[in-house]
């Protein structure tokens, strides 16, 4: 019997002495599923995404909480397990903020998806092989932005930056793609294009997709199954087409209005650089030891071309 791609058992999370953010979450996602995670602001969606990815530890204290990826434990009883490193290589995460290094080329940003797989010295110096560069170009072609490979990340629109982030997970070889509100900062047309890519990756390459969404319309269009959170608990897990306004009103009350926002119609803006308020802030883009080590890579790739 095939193990679930994602399996949560009695997962709880509380920050400090505050109210529980997650309360006894039980969830299974089968390999090859595309599942939407919805909920009003503060429902626990982002925290759940972060715990599945092993970025936030779950609570321990003898509650029996566990997160398993393809049957292997990612977290257990409040601790990240020894197998988490290998599991993270099979799991790609896409965030609302695109997490690109804006002064580096798009191709270099995609190549950063290999940092956990290449020798540390090569990664720190930004030394990637020609075959790795070709694989990165194929990933960019897969999301439709290969012509922008040698542009700086700052030159791309928000939708293009998000597609570059998805290409980075493809180069990583992720079998599960977890997306935390990946279209929240995008205009409707760019949002559709990103969701089209996620749906196509799920359909054609059997990549398991769990995507957190703030607009139910996208869940209805793209995801056969939806999991709804409220106050850190699962209040619905079933077919997306059951999520009528009346039903959501029963689940969420007045909060249901948050979940029906205009989202599927709008003007194309993929040819315009992303607004400053969508880009990474100065703190994220500030040169770091890793970024400094990668400084020569853009010039190296430009000299090498795309061969």
In short:
The chain has 307 residues and is α/β, with parallel strands linked by helices. It has helices at 45-52, 84-88, 106-111, 120-125, 130-142, 158-172, 188-205, 216-222, 245-252, 282-285, 289-293, 295-304, and strands at residues 6-14, 20-29, 34-38, 66-69, 72-76, 79-80, 91-94, 176-180, 208-213, 225-230, 233-239.
Describe the protein's architecture and organization.
By secondary structure, this protein is of the alpha/beta class. The protein has a domain at 32-44 and 91-100 and 156-274: P-loop containing nucleotide triphosphate hydrolases (Rossmann fold), CATH 3.40.50.300. Helices cover 34% and strands 21% of the residues. It has twelve helices and eleven strands. It has a six-stranded mixed sheet with strand order 7-8-9-3-10-11, sandwiched between helices. A five-stranded antiparallel sheet has the order 2-1-4-5-6, with helices on one face. β10 (225-230) and β11 (233-239) form a beta hairpin. α5 packs across α6 (158-172). The longest helix is centred in the middle third of the chain and has 18 residues, at 188-205. The chain is globular. The termini are far apart.
Features:
307 residues, alpha/beta, single chain, disordered C terminus, 21% strand, five-stranded antiparallel sheet, Rossmann fold, six-stranded mixed sheet
């Amino acid at each position: 019997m095939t193990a679930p791609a994602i399996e949560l058992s009695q997962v709880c999370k509380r920050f400090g002495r505050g109210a529980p953010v997650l309360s006894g979450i039980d969830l299974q996602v089968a390999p090859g599923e595309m599942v939407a995670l919805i909920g009003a602001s503060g429902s626990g969606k982002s925290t759940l995404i972060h715990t599945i990815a092993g970025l936030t530890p779950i609570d321990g204290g003898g509650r029996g909480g566990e997160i398993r990826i393809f049957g292997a434990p990612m977290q257990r009883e409040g601790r990240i397990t020894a197998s988490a490193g290998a599991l993270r290589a099979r799991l790609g995460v896409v965030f609302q903020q695109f997490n690109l290094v804006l002064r580096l080329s798009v191709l270099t940003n995609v190549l950063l998806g290999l940092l956990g797989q290449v020798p540390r010295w090569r990664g720190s110096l930004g030394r990637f092989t020609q075959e790795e560069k070709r694989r990165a170009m194929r990933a960019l072609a897969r999301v439709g932005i290969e012509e922008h490979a040698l542009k700086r990340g700052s030159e791309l629109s928000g939708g293009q930056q998000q597609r570059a982030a998805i290409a980075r997970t493809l180069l990583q070889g992720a079998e599960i793609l977890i997306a935390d509100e990946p279209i929240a900062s995008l205009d409707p047309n760019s949002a559709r294009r990103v969701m089209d890519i996620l749906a196509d990756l799920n359909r054609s390459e059997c990549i398991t997709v769990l995507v957190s969404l703030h607009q139910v319309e996208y869940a209805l269009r793209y995801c056969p199954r939806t999991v709804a959170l409220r106050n850190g608990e699962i209040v619905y897990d079933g077919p997306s087409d059951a999520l009528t306004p009346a039903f959501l009103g029963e689940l969420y009350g007045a909060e249901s209005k948050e979940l029906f926002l205009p989202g599927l119609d709008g003007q194309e803006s993929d040819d315009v650089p992303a607004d400053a308020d969508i880009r990474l802030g100065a703190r994220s883009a500030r040169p770091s030891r890793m970024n400094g080590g990668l400084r020569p890579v853009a010039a190296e790739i430009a000299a090498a071309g795309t061969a």
